[in-house]
Amino acid sequence: MPRGRYSLHDPHDHTPLAEEHFHCAPGPSGWRYVSQLTTPAGDHSGSVDLTLDELGRPLRLELHAGGWQVRGAALDGVTWVRTDPTGTHATEGNVRAHAFTGTSPAFLIATTRLLRLTPSDSATRVRLVALTDPVLAPRTVDQSWALVNRETHATDNGPLTVDEYQVTALDTGEQHAVHIAGDVVLAAPGIELEDLDSPPSTFA
Hints:
Layout: E1 3-9, E2 16-26, E3 30-38, E4 44-53, E5 58-65, E6 68-74, E7 78-83, E8 90-95, E9 99-102, H1 106-115, E10 124-132, E11 137-155, E12 158-169, E13 175-181, E14 184-188, E15 191-196
C-alpha cells in the first residue's frame, strides 16, 4: 500500500497550491485512493476518496474542497451530486462521459486504468468530467491519451516499470507528458512526488 505526499502547484507560474498526503492500494473491487489536502500554510483544504472497479470505472467518488462536496459514480455515463458549503443546495448532474478528472493525481491513475493502453496502441480519445478546485464546478473535457514509452528501471525493491503518456487536450491541442509507475504519478504538470514510503503497487 503506497503512502506518500505530492506537492501541487500552478503548472504555468509554479505557485504552490497544496500538499496531498495519500495512500492507495488495489483491492477486491479494483483500486482505492484516499488523500487529505493542506494549503502551503498547513491548513486542511480538502480530501479525495476514489474507488475504481476492476475495469477502471469510478465505483464511488467523494471530493471536498473549499466547503464544497461532490459525490459521484459511473451511472448512465457519470452521475454526481454537488453540495454547496451551507449544505442547503444540492445539484445533480449527468454526462455521457467515461470517468471523472480533477487536480488530484488519483485521476491520472484512474484514466490509465480505464484505458489500459500499450505502447503499440494508437492514441485513444476519452471524455471526462473535470471537477477542479476551488469550488468543484463540473466541466466536460475531451482528451487524447497515448502511451509513448515504457521503461523498466532496476531499484533496490526490484524492477520498476515507468510509463510515459502523452495527453492532448482536444479543445486546445495543448499536449503534456505524464509519467506513472504502477499506481503512483512520478511527474505531471502541476504535480511533483515528494515522498513515497513504499513501492508503487503493480496491477495484474
